[in-house]
Amino acid sequence: MWQAVIDPIAFTLGPLNVHWYGVIMGTAAFLGLILAVREGERRGLDSETILDMMLWILPSAIIGARLYYVLFEWEYYAMHPEDIVAVWKGGLAIHGGLIVAFLVGYIFVKKRNIPFLQIADILIPSVILGQAIGRWGNFINQEAHGGEVSRSFLEGLHLPNWIIDQMNIQGVYYHPTFLYESLWNLVGFGLLLFIRSRNPRRGEVLFSYMIWYSLGRFFIEGLRTDSLTFTGPDWLAQVMEGLWSPMLFLFDPGLMDEGNVRIAQLMSLILALIGVFFIIWRRATGKATVSYRGEVVTEATEIPQQADVVEGPEEKAEETVDKTADGQEESAAEATESEETAGEDGKKEGKSEA
């Protein structure tokens, strides 16, 4: 049977080959940027601020994702240093990109005096949408797949032939884990938009993303055969296996060439626990008092020649009382002055009539 395999090169411009991987990742970034800009404007954040932030975050995220991957695959890249910059061949670890983007974004918003948790809530749906789209770059490159399956298994998922054929790598069919994660992230995108529409406490859209994405990534990662791994203590490996064990009712786990702990699974577990912790802790301690739709404070909204301190309700109340008292004193003084003037005029009029 003839099988069509998608060429990873989308088109050629002279000596330059433009890969589908780059086209798909660029499309994901563009759509995410549009979504973030529109939501930012609705929340009172000008588009230039979002664009400036993206100019820092996007390149940083790509660099961080690549360095993270290269670090854990250093044995190969030490022998092939020319491939370190070949991102079009794949090899972007999302956790590395998230870590670097988080740090760069935090520094950026602090310098611009923007509430970090609110800007994170604005941007994070764009992130998971970008992840949903970006997984199709892995599909084109025939990477990030799971273990071996039969063609009948893929047909049983009611997949179109062009997906089934692309999952045939050198005569062997594999789990389309790219598709599982793409669909999971697409559902997560809708879920985050719904949560945000309910005007949650500030930061809870971000924490919900950490929980949702990590939950799906943890279980899907266990199906893959190309996971970044390391050799950890036996107890940690057993914990990972135990948490993933419900999947055994459906699928066999993907084989690991070396190591006993999948790095992406461990990172997913940590991020999910962090998300749960912060939602509970912030609510329990009363720190989650500001809603998502609260005002965005930026450089443009600062009052000139004043300290970078937002007045609390008590300070504003005191200022109002002071102004009211000053106004009452001025009114009383004006009334007294008017009475004295009226009395003098009356005396003068009396003398004239006499």
Structure explained in plain terms:
63% of the residues lie in helices and 6% in strands. The protein has one domain (9-301). The chain has helices at residues 20-42, 47-72, 74-79, 94-111, 116-140, 151-156, 161-166, 177-197, 204-221, 234-244, 263-284, 313-353, and strands at residues 9-13, 16-19, 148-149, 168-169, 172-174, 229-230, 261-262. The chain has twelve helices and seven strands. A three-stranded antiparallel β-sheet has the order 3-5-4. It has a two-stranded antiparallel sheet with strand order 1-2. Helix 1 (20-42) packs antiparallel against helix 2 (47-72), helix 2 runs antiparallel to helix 4 and helix 8 (177-197) packs antiparallel against helix 9. By secondary structure, it is mainly α. It is found in: Cell membrane. GO terms for molecular function: phosphatidylglycerol-prolipoprotein diacylglyceryl transferase activity. Residues 303-354 are annotated as: Disordered.
Give a topology summary:
Elements: E1 9-13, E2 16-19, H1 20-42, H2 47-72, H3 74-79, H4 94-111, H5 116-140, E3 148-149, H6 151-156, H7 161-166, E4 168-169, E5 172-174, H8 177-197, H9 204-221, E6 229-230, H10 234-244, E7 261-262, H11 263-284, H12 313-353
Antiparallel strand pairs: 1-2, 3-5, 4-5, 6-7
Helix pairs in contact: 1-2, 1-5, 2-4, 5-8, 5-9, 8-9, 9-11
